[in-house]
Design a protein that fits this description.
Layout lengths: L1 E8 L10 H11 L2 H23 L7 E4 L6 H13 L3 H11 L3 E2 L5 H15 L4 H33 L5 E7 L12 E5 L3 H12 L4 H12 L9
Parallel strand pairs: 1-4, 1-5, 2-3, 2-4
Helix pairs in contact: 2-4, 2-8, 3-4, 5-6, 7-8
Length: about 230
């Protein structure tokens, strides 16, 4: 038996690297300050829940897979530590796991990441209508394909490196669906329902429907699956 803890997540600004400033401009243009503040509090509370959950687990020798991470071993560990110092809550949790004996694994193909990042950055930096339309169509045309290729690659890394009797954790963005490409003997334990995380992100991105956003925000803040009552 092989076990995988699935952590579906939404990235905060500290996780976004060089795209952070451009994304912040877009969010500030379309989303109210009140909603942005609530979103930040919700995501921080979510990560507190994840940290608390793993504090109750034996994570020594657990294998850690992280979307966007194209290196494992000592190089992967160094990347985790550097991003944790930049106050990425995602990588602060990973850093804590590493300190307790978890192992960082190569998760992604750098070539696929670079293709997607190039398309996304070209779209964000578009200044005029026709260039924006062109880059948007190009991004939409390739996005689904690249997402599937990344998911298949990540699943392949887990299938190949997670051995019988071992445990692993996958930290993965809400848009991904790695689980459907995993070997059948890998038992998957979602810490949150991936569909809930996707619904929350869609509600956050809308200008209206504050009630839906509030409801989903409250659900995301609640105890994660398997968390004790202590």
């Amino acid at each position: 038996m092989r076990e995988l803890f699935l952590v579906p997540m939404i990235h905060i600004d500290a996780d976004l690297g060089k795209a952070k400033d451009e994304i912040a401009l877009v969010k500030n243009r379309f989303i109210s300050q009140k909603r942005l503040e609530q979103h930040e509090k919700t995501i921080l509370m979510f990560w507190d829940r994840v940290l608390t959950y793993f504090e109750e687990q034996d994570v020594k020798n657990m294998k850690i897979f992280q979307d966007g991470l194209a290196a494992g071993g000592e190089i992967g560990k160094k990347i985790v530590k550097e991003l944790a110092l930049k106050e990425s809550r995602n990588f602060m949790v990973l850093s804590d796991l590493v300190d307790k004996g978890a192992m960082v694994m190569k998760t992604e193909d750098i070539a696929l990441i670079q293709q997607e990042q190039t398309l996304f950055m070209n779209l964000l930096k578009s200044k005029h209508f026709f260039s924006t339309l062109k880059n948007y169509l190009k991004y939409r045309f390739n996005k689904t394909r690249l997402l599937k290729e990344r998911d298949m690659y990540m699943a392949g890394q887990i299938n190949s490196n997670l051995k019988k009797g071992e445990k692993a954790a996958l930290f993965i963005g809400a848009a991904h669906n790695v689980a459907c490409f995993l070997d059948k003997d890998i038992l998957v334990f979602p810490l949150k329902d991936p569909l809930l995380v996707k619904q929350y992100f869609k509600a956050f991105s809308k200008k209206k429907n504050d009630r839906e956003f509030q409801t989903l925000s409250n659900e995301l803040r609640c105890k994660i699956n398997g968390e004790s009552n202590a």
